[in-house]
Amino acid sequence: MQYTVVFCQDAYTLVEQKLPEAFDLLIKTKAIHRVFQDSRGFFWVMSNHGLARFDGYELKYFRHNPDNNNSISDDIALVACEDKDGNIWFGMISTGLCCYNYMSNSFTNYQGKNLLQGTLGSVNCLFVDSQNEVWFSMGRTGISHLNKTDSTFDTFDVITAERCPYNTPYRIEFNNFVMDIKERDSENLWLGTPDGLFNLHKKTKSFTVLRPKKQFNLDADIYNAKSIIVAGSKVWIGGFRSGLQCYDTLTKQWSDYDIITTDLLKQPRQHMQNVVLHITPKDSDTFWIASYDQGLCIFNTTTKKCRFFSEESKYNFLPKTEALFLITDNKSNLFVLYNNQYFYLKICPNLFKQFSIPRYQHLNDGYPVIESIYEDTLRNTLYATTLYSDNLISINKATGISQRVKPILNGKIFELPSINQIIPIDAQSVYLLTSKQYFIYNLVNNHITIPLQPDTIKDTTNDKYSLTSLTVDQNKNLWFGTTHKGIIKLNTTTGTTTFFATTENDTAEFGTKFIHLVYADVKNRIWYATGRASITAYYNQNIKKSVYINDHGLPDVKSNSISSYNFISKGNFLFVSSIKGLMVFDISTETPTLIKHIRGVNGLGNTLVTNLVFENDSLIWLDTYFGVVRYNLNNNKHQIINNDNGIDGKYQHVLSGAQKNIYVAASPYIYEYMPELKAKDYLPVTPALTSFKVNDDQLNFEYALQNGQIIIKPEYSYFTVAFASLDFANAAQYRYSYQLENFNEKWVDAGNIRYATFSNLKGGNYILKIRSTLDNGITYSTIKSIPIFIETVYYKTLWFKTVVVGAIATLLIAIYRYRMQQQRAIELLNTLTQRLEKEKSIVHYENLKQQLNPHFLFNSLTSLSSLIATEPKIARQFVDQMSKVYRYILKSSDHETVLLADELKFANTYIQLQKTRFENGFEVHITIDDRYLNRSIVPVTLQNLVENALKHNIVDDESPLKIEVFVQQEYLVVKNNLQLKTVVETSNKQGLDKMKSLYKYLSCNPIVVENNDGFFQIKIPLI
Questions:
Q1: CB atoms < 10 A from the CB of 798, how many?
Q2: Which of 532, 551, 756, 902 is found 20 to 30 A from 988 (Cα to Cα)?
Q3: What is the Cα–Cα distance from 426 to 440, expressed in whole angstroms?
């Protein structure tokens, strides 16, 4: 027997959304006239409580301010539309038109006078054409056009005696107003009136009456055009008692369609039947209808069929009558105004293709419970196993035909028993596991074979045990879970059967004989779950031992193990669904390691997970206590799959097909997930800026952004930005994050907080970025970027700092130059002073030498005179030594310093001359190490010191003058014993001071004079 699969007829589901608390008062007082959504996404609510703008969270009212000419007029708005510049126009109840400009955040009121009546009437409808011209109907004065330059109204009668001679004067006056305006092209407008459809040629201001042939029927209500839609060459008209009409502008033909159920058509027609109050497009071939007698409807222009939602049980929350007005928002969701309440209906796209499983007779009124599926992608066929029905059903996805599978065994039809599991073998065949044995089923030729069975299950009449599960390991061995025999392994090559619980008492390996699930991973470990003992473990074939797993993923005794429902491998990871949530193990190593544990704390709401299927690497589908859940592994966000997504049925659980296809079983249906049908409803809306306050003062940010960026003065210390995703249906589900570039290094997660405050920012350019995501956290919105420039206080600006730094630098340079000039002057003076002092000392020293030379010459000549007479030979030597002394003086007179070795030679010559004079009364001992001979000394220094000792001390043979010359600590020391003369005839007492002054310029070490303990010594620094 074959059955036709019933595909899901609806591509969407209407879900009633709870209106926000801000609307409660308006709804309770029945105060709402219209709701309008502008191109930015804001809703404008026109009510008796005033005009308000809604961002999905709160209402912002615009009130009349007598002191502000740019405020809204003190009136009630009835209708609204938007022009090409983004300005919002409102038709008021008694004061004409009002226009709101986003850029200036101000209103302009147009209160021209009605030419016929002298007073303004209520604005019935309002329209902005493709040339940005404003047309409207006000009172019963036909149609008006606004002259923006002088704020006057041009008004034209539509219903006149000439155009409508079939009307009475009263009806002409009564019907002379326009209820709807649409544009045909840039030159023509379509006008809906109580007296039917009219065409207005804008340039000539001429009107054309468009009515069916029976246009002179006095019962004009049947031609009423309350609402119109222009779709290509056709104009669709809805009105009182006329139902739905269509005028084809090409063929000039009219068509009529009753908006009334079959049952009502059989009854006498009532006055308020077949009434269409408003129509608005849904897509290219359907539009929504607000009807008085049928409530909300939808009409298909292709099939010419009307669907009445009030007649469907799942929409019993909708009133059956008096739908007055409806609009669609930017996500195609519906606002429907009924006589006494507003409904907001979210259009949830059905993301699933529906296949129905037929009801079989032996189930009475029940439906089969779908256990498992297998998808044969080569033949585009689904195979489903069911409980309490015909066991295996095939569904051809292309033709929509399902049938009970009746395979052939040995040339005869084989009646399949109840099937627990389908396991693929290759592209052509699968294993079918029943409670007593397993089969091989060929998908191509519909043949079934009975392969070699394990030893203990060859007797299919044995009721003591049942097969529960089957898995195939890496070596193609089959592993069976049983209810009374534990686990059985069958080697398909050798036919060998291995038992892991052979007797009633032999349960050492697995702890129980009841195994409800077995699974072989990539390491050839056999994971299993027991039924009665409620444990999870794996059997390691290498060590022939079972390892029990607790809820921390660690090996444990079986008493602390967890109960599992399914095992699924993905690469080197094993996903275990269990009573303690979803556990993810890394199974690439010898010992499995728990790397992720998803439980109620991760957002599931409950820890029970019975099955899972992969959509991709980050998205998985889970069977949970709350039903089927789509879970994001990256951010722990989840989405519950329910009736809102088009699933209807019982016993929901997720199943896996081939090639990552997802199926949800909900008896009596199987639903195939169609990600390509995923609508924009699941993509978050880019946040809009709703407020920008600087130091608590509202800034006109629209105007600022129009000029490129928001500029904040330096005297303001903080600003606050408010934002919202203008998605009325999902407002409560949005989460926000923001980042201020050049201030925040990372995105700031704001949760459901819709504002951000910044303070004490440095001057400069910033970009505030805002993004949002829906509660499921799967996809972020596009980023809203707001450029902000904070002016820098003058003393923090670069130019000011540059000027200050330049001034300071100039001052410092001037001071430095002055100090350097002063320093150079001082140094110059010091140099000159030192030079003068040195020159003066040298002059004095030269004078000293000149003074010493005559004295020395006189003494020497006196000694020579006495020697010539007594010691002629010694006299000759004496003359020779004198010549050496004067030769040295002449030679060194041009040098500041001489070598110590030369000075010692000269001193020895001088000393020999003096020894000739004083003989034994004068003793000189010179002990100087050779390493000091290359050091320098001022010429004649040593001779002057010896001469000074001779000059001031008594020289006598009985008490000789003893002089020692040696080097001590870098000084040349001249030491003599003290036997001072009473009178020193030739001393000027300045020689030693002049020598000190001279050495001060030649050495860092001063001349040291010591006079103590009967000795006098002078230390001359070696140069």
A1: 9
A2: 902
A3: 11
